[in-house]
Amino acid sequence: MQPRKLTRIGGDEAGIAIVEVLVSALVLLIFSVGVVTVLTGSTRATAQERHRTQANMLAEQELERVRSLRIADLVSLNSTRRVLEDGTQLTGACPTSRPQSLQTCYTITSQSQFQNEPAATSGCSAGTGSRDYMLLTISVSWTGMGALHPVTAATIVSPPSGSLVPNSGSVLVNVVDSRNVGIGGVALTGSGAGTFSGSTGPTGCVLWRNVPVGNYTMSVGGTASGMVDQNGDAPANQTVSVVDQGTNTVNLQYDRPGSIQNINFRTRDYSNDLIASTADSVIVSNTGMQVAKQFTPVGGGRAANISTTTTLFPFTSPYAVYAGTCASNTPPAGPMLGNATVPVAGAGSLATPGYIQLPSLQVNVWSGTSVLPGSRLAGGKVTARDTGCNVTRTLTTSTDSNGRVPVAGDIGLPYGAYDVCAQNSAGTDKRIITGVALTSAGATGTNLDVYLGGQPAGTCP
């Protein structure tokens, strides 16, 4: 049996309410502290965000201000100024005394620095001593920013040519190959009113700024050595002019030369069969050339095939190839005009059909006149003067028994107009036929009858 006194104490709950009140108060206190902390942090973050926004605005304003300065002032730009949040400009440090100390103080730093533009950015490597542009940097910090980073803003200013150095300009040189790919390592040196030197970068470009105004002679070397220009000539000195506050762009194109091998010829015989022929010279040309190039057989004379020297620029378009010695021998498109593509540092050949067909001059020499032809004259001499190129070719010094130029003497001639002269072996009877046009190399040759009867006419070679 339990004592009555202990039973009374165990059932007494008089102190529990006080404990519950104390616990609730403690929980409320902890919660309140957390809420206050969050509210304080939020207020501080909001304030810092407001300061950062103000700093951003000041940075943009400062950037616009310095961009409007003269280039001469930007060269040495390195300034610091301070401003209060109400816009008050300060002449010294941020204030520590009231009431200005209650405002946030912003410190604005402005600097400029010359940069050389990298090839990865411009595609053009900078020449020696180049100053391609100025980098302007603005930094804004404020009081109470703690561990936060200052707000920064930057921009690029490209000084006009000659704005930093009076009476000067720029020289920009681009060097590419036949495929328009930049050639790096081309050494360029200019001398004249001043000097400049350097080499092209990986993209084939080099830039010099602040070069004294005047005319310069620029030499080309380095990786361009052994290459040729579009005319098939080795890189020559270039004349470069520098104008005040301007940029002179010089575009050069070089590549390793090639050749055209075994240019051979065909013509029609007296039966109009296509037979092998010869030529004393060929001309090759391309629309990219200023002057066509002429090539003759090794040792001179006429040859069944002619090869060029390794001096041809490797254009992506084919060369026009024809027999002759001047532009008057240029034929229209057709069998008289061959074409060949020259590879880089390689040998090309004539495209299909693989030969050049020459017009055929089929001369028949008679002893009489056109009314009374007489007999065919053997042993006669026949020459043909190319009137357009002023070149005389002896077709034969002895016509055959049919009064013809022997096929072995070659009756194929370049395209053009000719004065044809025939004479007997003694040179007493002769006749010149002027204006014979060899303008076709079709299925038949040009048949020409020359009559030596009557009075001598003209002077034959």
Structural class: alpha+beta
- Could you name the ranges where pLDDT drops below 50 across 5 or more consecutive residues? 118-123, 126-130
Task: Trace the largest sheet across and list its strands.
Answer: 2-1-3-5-6
Individual helix count: 4
If you compute it from the alpha carbons, what radius of gyration comes out, rounded to the nearest whole angstrom? 47 Å
What average pLDDT do the residues reach? 86
Strand content: 35-45%
Sheet with most strands = 5 strands, antiparallel
The backbone outline, from C-alpha atoms, is rod-shaped
Distance between the termini: 166 Å
- Describe the oligomeric state of these chains in a short phrase: single chain
Number of strands: 29
The level of helicity is 10-25%
Which descriptors would you attach to this protein?
29 strands; rod-shaped; 4-stranded mixed sheet; 5-stranded antiparallel sheet; 461 residues; alpha+beta; 4 helices; single chain
Structure overview:
This protein is α+β, with helices and mostly antiparallel strands. It is built from 4 helices and 29 strands. The chain has helices at about 5-10, 15-65, 70-75, 120; strands at about 80-85, 90, 105-115, 125, 135-140, 150-155, 170-175, 185-190, 195-200, 205-210, 215-220, 240, 245-255, 260, 265-270, 275, 280-285, 295, 305, 320-325, 340, 345-350, 355, 360-365, 380-385, 390-395, 415-425, 430-440, 445-450. It has a 5-stranded antiparallel beta sheet, covered by helices on one side. The radius of gyration is 47 Å and the shape is rod-shaped.
